[in-house]
Amino acid sequence: xxxxxxxxxxxxxxxxxxxxxxxxxxxxxxxxxxxxxxxxxxxxxxxxxxxxxxxxxxxxxxxxxxxxxxxxxxxxxxxxxxxxxxxxxxxxxxxxxxxxxxxxxxxxxxxxxxxxxxxxxxxxxxxxxxxxxxxxxxxxxxxxxxxxxxxxxxxxxxxxxxxxxx
Amino acid sequence: xxxxxxxxxxxxxxxxxxxxxxxxxxxxxxxxxxxxxxxxxxxxxxxxxxxxxxxxxxxxxxxxxxxxxxxxxxxxxxxxxxxxxxxxxxxxxxxxxxxxxxxxxxxxxxxxxxxxxxxxxxxxxxxxxxxxxxxxxxxxxxxxxxxxxxxxxxxxxxxxxxxxxxxxxxxxxxxxxxxxxxxxxxxxxxxxxxxxxxxxxxxxxxxxxxxxxxxxxxxxxxxxxxxxxxxxxxxxxxxxxxxxxxxxxxxxxxxxxxxxxxxxxxxx
Lengths: 166, 268
Fold this sequence. Notes:
The structure holds 2 protein chains of 2 kinds.
Chain A: H1 3-21, H2 24-40, H3 51-68, H4 75-81, H5 93-104, H6 108-118, H7 124-131, H8 135-154
Helix pairs in contact in A: 1-2, 1-3, 2-3, 3-7, 6-8, 7-8
Chain B: H1 8-15, H2 21-32, H3 35-55, H4 57-60, H5 65-68, H6 84-102, H7 106-114, H8 117-123, H9 127-138, E1 148-149, H10 153-164, E2 179-187, E3 192-199, E4 205-211, E5 223-227, E6 230-237, E7 240-246, H11 250-267
Antiparallel strand pairs in B: 1-2, 2-3, 3-4, 4-7, 5-6, 6-7
Helix pairs in contact in B: 1-3, 6-11
């Protein structure tokens, strides 16, 4: 494991964490903690195996640990922070912001699967091994998550999150 | 309803381009006769595209130097074993900070990109930044660097503890050459925070910023930030967030941070 290999993976870890948490600072903190833990455990990483999958699973486990702790005071702010546009010049802003707020309404376990499949193009088997769950669970979370997202978006007037519109 | 041959999993694999060619043709055939299902599949594809449109720009964002520095393998710990684990961490931060220096101009955009206006409004300033600003404002003050001076330490401790709603007291940093000047109360993101000021024989000052606003957040190891000319080590531990700021070299500051941390650990 070489620092250049790690450096290459950071942007993907950030993208996933940002999508999962919505909050930029919290997401980067999670990435930082992930890298820190990776270095303390790099002896456990088998050379030649998939570094990206390994890092994602470390991040997942850290997140599980975080969620087991008492509620974070920052959680109430996530929703607000999630409304901050990442690309203000976006032409399809309304639709994009709509999916962002819909995504926040999914249970995190569905959001994880949806994002690993949809953003990171992981295979279903890779998602199963990253999250440490059976393939059947991956499929049912994916199916429920996508359907729920569809329902939320279908039931919503475009432009419901007006605060971001310029 | 769809016949047994086409499963829900097939439809997702279709959305994700994971079907073998033969199966793909079967699913496409079937969807032509099932407009409702075809519309559902189309909605899933649109979701996927919208998520990518929303979050792919993160890939192109410049990497915050403190993150990039974590790509580096931690330095080997050459210090005695007493606090080996912890010191290894602080050395890692130190190594990180050196990488940061090598990254050069990268630091400039940090303040710019890291504290985008929307974020500032949404969640207040990050601990390291607040502490650095408080340091810059009060440490050069010759006549009134503190509100309550070290000779009234007992009162200082009582007052700050009462205002923060939790017991705080200034660590002794004589072993690393710094003596307490005093302390003051400051406004944080949502309530009072405490600042202790120290000074060495040459008049060099450093400040320890103590807040209860991070309470409930996961504990962190040492984090390092460079805010203009001020270096900051900060961490969250139990009920408090701490940030140690000074315009001194990172190595020296790391030593002081170690001393602060050790005392806080002992006091637990």
